[in-house]
Amino acid sequence: MRELQADELRAFVIAVARHLLANQPSSSSMLGSLEESVASCTSLSGLREAARDMIEWSQDLHGQTLRELDEHLSASGLPTLTEMRAF
């Protein structure tokens, strides 16, 4: 159960980061570093903190942009940003 939750949190953090950094020209090294860090994290509390960071980082997403991200997350079997914001 803990590993399933950890895998879901890892995937959520990476998907949100990819979405937020998609149109940033110099973001590939930042994204690579983040992905590596999240992928190697074994601490559930650390992954929860990373998910909270992504929620905070994306606080300005609304409207169509939020709907698109939510649809992508849902299609990937992950909780949506809207759902995660509700916690």
Written overview of the protein:
It is a single chain. Helix 1 runs parallel beside helix 3. The chain has 87 residues and is an all-alpha fold. The radius of gyration is 12 Å and the shape is globular. It is built from 5 helices and no strands. Helix content is 75%, strand content 0%.
Taken in chain order, the helices and strands follow as HHHHH
Number of helices: 5
The helicity comes to over 70%
Number of domains: 1
> What's the N-to-C terminus distance?
19 Å
Instruction: Provide the low-confidence segments as ranges.
Output: none
Shape: globular
Main β-sheet description: none
Estimate the strand proportion: under 5%
Cα-based radius of gyration, to the nearest Å:
12 Å
The average pLDDT value, as a whole number, equals 93
> What structural class do helix, strand and pairing data support?
mainly alpha
| Total count of strands | 0
